Amino acid sequence: MMVDEDVVYLVPSTVYRILDRHDRLYRWKRPEPGEGRRVPEASYPDEVWHIDLVYLWVKGRWYFLVTILDSYSRYIVHWELALSMRAQEIAEIIAGALERVHGKRPRIVRDNGSQFVAKEWREVMRHFELEEIPIGVRHPQSNGRIERYHRSVREEALGDTEAESLYRARDLLAEWVRHDNEERLHSALEYLRPVDYYRDNPQALLAGRETKLREAAARRKEVNRGKKETRLVNGVPELGRSERGAGAIAEAGAMAEAEGKPRRNRQTPRKSPTLAQEIPVNSPTPKSLSPPPWSALKYPMS
After folding, report:
1. What one-character-per-residue DSSP string does 150-211 give?
2. How far is residue 97 from each of residues 38, 89, 104, 106, 113, measured CA to CA in Å?
3. Read out DSSP for 67-105?
4. Higher pLDDT, 124 or 282
5. For a tag on the chain, would you pick the N or C end, based on fewer CB atoms within 10 A?
6. How far is residue 96's CA from residue 90's CA, in Å, rounded to a whole number?
7. pTM for the complete prediction?
8. CA distance readout (Å), 19 to 25, 27, 125, 178
């Protein structure tokens, strides 16, 4: 989003390294493989919908959040905080969502709850001529996209604070749905918003983002090249770091020659003094160099 709003231009790999360095990544654990029907991948909006419900505790009693999520864009198409989980109420919620997308016939991914096999539900499916995709028994991973969304609702939308009324809970959920649809970036959507995939042209947005990143990389390259070149400060050329170091070495060498000291080349290693240079001619022989006494020599017995 910062790239789209011209705030900063960073590729995802750089953002990942920064977040990893500061321990700000959420480590996702891949679920164990199980037995369940594979949900087909959607290729356009309103092709596949996921529906599920979750319990929410509000002001001393349980309510039931029913959510319908578009599989292609992760967009929340419709939601209701219901007073009960009766089949009639769930059927009315899905019918209201279908009326909002007139002419669409999405395939419905749902679990095997009693609400989704009741007569009221089947009547809605026949009326709109929809195909159902029931997931495997005890295999919530098949409906994992909406399961993950409901987890975020529990942890982030309401959190540890208890809403003082049903109306307050609905306001909090409405703000959370708006934030998730229009502001939150999804890694599975190339770090775009669900609304970009549901109502916009994601390919055009991604192409524009790539253009901005290439232009930013070219500008950074020019800036870095300029830092290495000679810069003018008040009309006097300012040397770079390597040039300043070479100048200091030359100045030190000139001062040494002026004092009568031999100038040593840094690239020529200093030779270690030989044994003749270390030991004067008239000095006594060190013990380490004197021959061993005759008593120390051992001859074999003849």
Report:
1. HHHIIIIIITTPPPSSHHHHHHHHHHHHHHHHHT--BGGGTTB-HHHHHHS-HHHHHHHHHH
2. 24, 13, 11, 11, 19
3. EEEETTT--EEEEEEES---HHHHHHHHHHHHHHTTT--
4. 124
5. C
6. 10
7. 0.65
8. 6, 12, 45, 26
**Whether residue 211 has pLDDT greater than 70:** yes
Q: Which residue carries 């989704």 as its tokens?
A: 116
- Give the chain's largest Cα–Cα span: 121
Element (H, E) at 21: helix 12-21
The rounded distance, in Å, linking the Cα atoms of 172 and 185 is 20
What domains does the chain contain, in order, with CATH numbers?
Answer: 36-184 (3.30.420.10)
Per DSSP, the three-state class of 122 is helix
One-letter amino acid identity for 79?
W
CA–CA separation, 263 vs 107, rounded Å? 86
What does the pLDDT look like over 152-207, one tens digit per residue? 998 888 877 678 889 999 999 999 999 999 999 998 999 999 999 999 899 999 99
CA dist 171 and 168 (Å) reads 5
Q: Is 42 left (phi over 0), alpha (psi -120 to 50) or beta?
A: beta
